[in-house]
Amino acid sequence: MGIGRAYCVALAKEGAKVVVADIQDAEAKKVAAEIQREGGTATNVAVDVTSPEKTRAMAETTLQHYGRIDVLVNNAGLYTTIKKRSFVELPPDEWDQIIAVNLKGQFLCAQAVYPAMQRQSKGKIINISSGTIFSGSPHFVHYVTSKAGVIGFTRALARELGPDNISVNAITPGLTISGPQQAGVITPQQLADRRSRRCFQRDQFPQDLVGTVIFLASADSDFITGQTINVDGGANMY
């Protein structure tokens, strides 16, 4: 959970009380303990974002610990475990799994936190999409489709939750180096190609994304909703 860890640690340093929610509970515990060692406030909860019951339990645990829910960062997603293959070879159950985690998961998490945000008349939902929606990366059709769906979900939800003073925005990261598990997904040659297509010709790391997350979570972005912020070093410009 390299990128998710970066978000949690950065938000905690800004004073947020963090709930580290992940299906890999042991990893979530490590991140929460790291934040606590650094003087921050954090707890962890195991969650399967494809489960309405588990996502509701995540929200309930947050309320039990902190009494309110101000920010949801919808970061859960499947990417590094995906095997690249032509869409004609793609098993339907794999399509369903990617859509369930990457898109349905964001819907369920938003549904789970909404009652608390509605009561507060205030909230921030930050959905993590992907820069692949601009390039249409081949052999990842289910992943790209799921992340494109996040943009439509973001815009529709922003319209619906505006009257509740809840902002909903999306971030499209470029390819972000977050751990050795990516070795099987992208080659050194492909990484070099990505670098060459950026204005800033270097690799992208989780730390490059945290400023945008902090901004969207803060009061400084209170009048921004329904937007997609692209963070990829200038590879794509829209």
Keywords:
6 strands, 14% strand, four-stranded parallel β-sheet, alpha/beta, 238 residues
Short description:
With 238 residues, this protein is of the alpha/beta class. The chain is built from eight helices and six strands.
Question: Care to describe what's here?
Answer:
This protein has 238 residues and is α/β, with parallel strands linked by helices. It has 8 helices and 6 strands. Helix 4 (92-120) links the parallel strand 3 and strand 4. Helix 1 packs parallel to helix 2, helix 1 packs across helix 8 (207-217) and helix 3 (52-66) packs parallel to helix 4. The mean pLDDT is 94.
How many strand units? 6
**What integer value in Å does the Rg equal?**
17 Å
**Beta content:** 5-15%
Helix and strand run: HEHEHEHEHHEHHE
Mean pLDDT: 94
Helix content: 40-55%
Contiguous helical run count? 8
The separation of the N and C termini measures 29 Å
Query: Strand arrangement, largest sheet?
Result: 3-4-5-6
**Biggest sheet features:** 4 strands, parallel
What's the assembly state of these chains?
single chain
Structural class: alpha/beta
User: What is the 3D shape?
Assistant: globular
In terms of per-residue confidence, which ranges show pLDDT below 50 for 5 or more consecutive residues? none
